[in-house]
Amino acid sequence: MDQFYRGTGRRKSAVARVRLLPGQGKVTINDTPFEEYFVYEDLRQDALSPLTLTGNLNGFDVVATVKGGGYAGQAGALRLGIARALLEFNPDLRKTLKSSGFLTRDSRKKERYKYGFKKARKSLVRHRLFYFVMRKKFTRFFGRGAGGRTGPIGRRLW
Fold it and tell me: Taken in order 88, 17, 60, 2, is the CA torsion positive or negative?
């Protein structure tokens, strides 16, 4: 087998194992042509941007296995994998790739769900009607109090 260069990239929950082989610029992902796998043009450009930046777009064939995540995460993982494989091919490209941010792993992930919330940070809706009803109930029992809307101990209710 010919000489090839490996790189592994991760983004969100996607993992890409990339091999660069000397060739004419053919890109295959999971045994599928590149144009069929990534339907959107901006994802294609994002994934191949390290090759475009270094001028090696037509110098290598890219064979990649990508698992997990969505299309955007997979494109980001592929970009990092290609950049790391290019670095293995020519360590002098490090300054160019690093200055463009292609060697930095994007560590952002989906935030976990918390109980008491609908999503990670989205809280339940507190309706104005609820406060209006609660104010009526409390004022019936405790009166207005000295500070306006206070309870029996003097703490604010809302």
Answer: positive
Distance CA 138, CA 39 (A): 59
Q: Is the pLDDT of residue 46 over 60?
A: yes
Model pLDDT for residues 81-93, shown as the tens digit of each residue = 999 999 999 999 9
Q: Which residue in the block uniquely carries the two structure tokens 């037509």?
A: 58
User: H-helix or E-strand containing 99?
Assistant: helix 94-99
Q: Are 60 and 54 in contact (CB under 8 A)?
A: no
Residue 17 class from Cβ within 10 Å (0-12 exposed, 13-18 middle, 19+ buried)?
A: middle
Residues 6+ apart with CB under 8 A from 100: 49, 50, 53
Closest CA to 14 of 63, 62, 71, 64: 71
For residue 36, the SS3 value is helix
